[in-house]
């Protein structure tokens, strides 16, 4: 069943008023008819099951019933992703949103080759669109935020406000995801993933000093676009 995200202001007196690209998609792409069912979410965790009551001159859906969205994970995970090369960030965003990420923060690290500079606003806007598309496709109850680029130190300071944080590191030999999950009882987690060149030893030391737990992801070295997805998938499976 088609799912659309709307602002809460578009929900009034038992109806949902769909606008812009959503209205165009319903009429010209889906070629929907009056009476067909859709699901609308307000981005705050509520799903509205509706049927289309009007298509011209504007698209109006009448609310049949609403319920709490069941697709959002209980554990809220923020991915702090070291800026990768080429279009890898787009893949990372798409797949992590499908898996259930809460928020993605692009991070400028010591070994990151990519520098967004003047292109940052356009890139963030494009990445947010990709997150929105992935959220719709996967039936999410919200569109995860793609934050502005942070320096590594800024990201570490922000992560102090979470209940726990981890940083996969190829030189870590003892602690893994099992050890982190076994001692975790909170509701928010930060995951730090390095760019193609990984994190420097100084960055790992800074992270450890601020309470971020270095972990191993196994005996194989994973690409930056793989590491975050694997870590996120396992955490959400174990923590819900």
Structure description:
Helices cover 33% and strands 27% of the residues. By secondary structure, it is of the alpha/beta class. The protein has two domains: 3-68, Beta Barrel (Ribosomal Protein L25, Chain P), CATH 2.40.240; 76-239, SPOUT methyltransferase, trefoil knot domain (Alpha/beta knot), CATH 3.40.1280.10. Strand 4 and strand 5 (46-54) form a beta hairpin. Helix 2 (88-99) runs parallel beside helix 3 (120-137) and helix 2 packs parallel to helix 7.
Structural class: alpha/beta
Q: CATH superfamily of the largest domain, please?
A: SPOUT methyltransferase, trefoil knot domain
CATH class of the largest domain: Alpha Beta
The CATH architecture category of the largest domain equals: 3-Layer(aba) Sandwich
The CATH topology of the largest domain: Alpha/beta knot
Number of domains: 2
Number of helices: 7
Number-wise, the strands total 13
Instruction: Give the H and E element order.
Output: EEEHEEEEHEHEEHEHEHEH
Low-confidence stretches: none
> What separation lies between the terminal Cα atoms?
25 Å
Mean pLDDT over the residues: 94
Helical fraction: 25-40%
Q: What overall form do the CA principal axes indicate?
A: elongated
Q: How large a portion of the residues is in β-strands, by DSSP E?
A: 25-35%
Please give the radius of gyration in angstroms.
20 Å
Q: Major sheet, described briefly?
A: 7 strands, parallel
Topology:
Blueprint: E1 3-5, E2 11-12, E3 15-18, H1 20-29, E4 37-41, E5 46-54, E6 59-68, E7 76-82, H2 88-99, E8 103-108, H3 120-137, E9 145-146, E10 150-151, H4 152-159, E11 164-168, H5 177-182, E12 188-193, H6 201-209, E13 213-215, H7 224-239
Parallel strand pairs: 1-4, 7-8, 7-12, 8-9, 8-10, 11-12, 11-13
Antiparallel strand pairs: 2-3, 3-6, 4-5, 5-6
Helix pairs in contact: 2-3, 2-7
């Amino acid at each position: 069943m088609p799912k659309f995200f709307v602002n809460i202001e578009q929900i009034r007196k038992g109806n949902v008023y769909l606008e812009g690209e959503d209205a165009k998609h319903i009429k010209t792409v889906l070629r929907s008819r009056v009476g067909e069912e859709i699901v609308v979410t307000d981005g705050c965790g509520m799903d509205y099951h509706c049927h289309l009551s009007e298509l011209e001159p504007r698209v109006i859906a009448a609310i049949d019933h609403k319920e709490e969205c069941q697709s959002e994970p209980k554990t809220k995970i923020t991915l702090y992703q070291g800026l990768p090369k080429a279009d890898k960030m787009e893949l990372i965003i798409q797949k992590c949103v499908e898996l259930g990420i809460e928020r993605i923060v692009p991070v400028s690290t010591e070994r990151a080759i990519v520098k967004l500079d003047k292109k940052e606003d356009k890139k963030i806007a494009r990445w947010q669109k990709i997150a929105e598309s992935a959220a719709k496709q996967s039936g999410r109850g919200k569109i995860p935020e793609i934050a502005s680029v942070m320096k590594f130190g800024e990201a570490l300071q922000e992560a102090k406000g979470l209940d726990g944080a981890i940083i996969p590191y190829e030189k870590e030999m003892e602690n893994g995801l099992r050890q982190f999950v076994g001692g975790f009882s909170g509701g928010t987690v930060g995951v730090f993933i390095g760019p193609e060149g990984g994190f420097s030893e100084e960055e790992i030391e800074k992270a450890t000093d601020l309470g971020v737990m270095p972990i191993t992801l196994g005996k194989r070295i994973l690409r930056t676009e793989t590491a975050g997805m694997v870590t996120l998938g396992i955490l959400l499976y174990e923590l819900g």
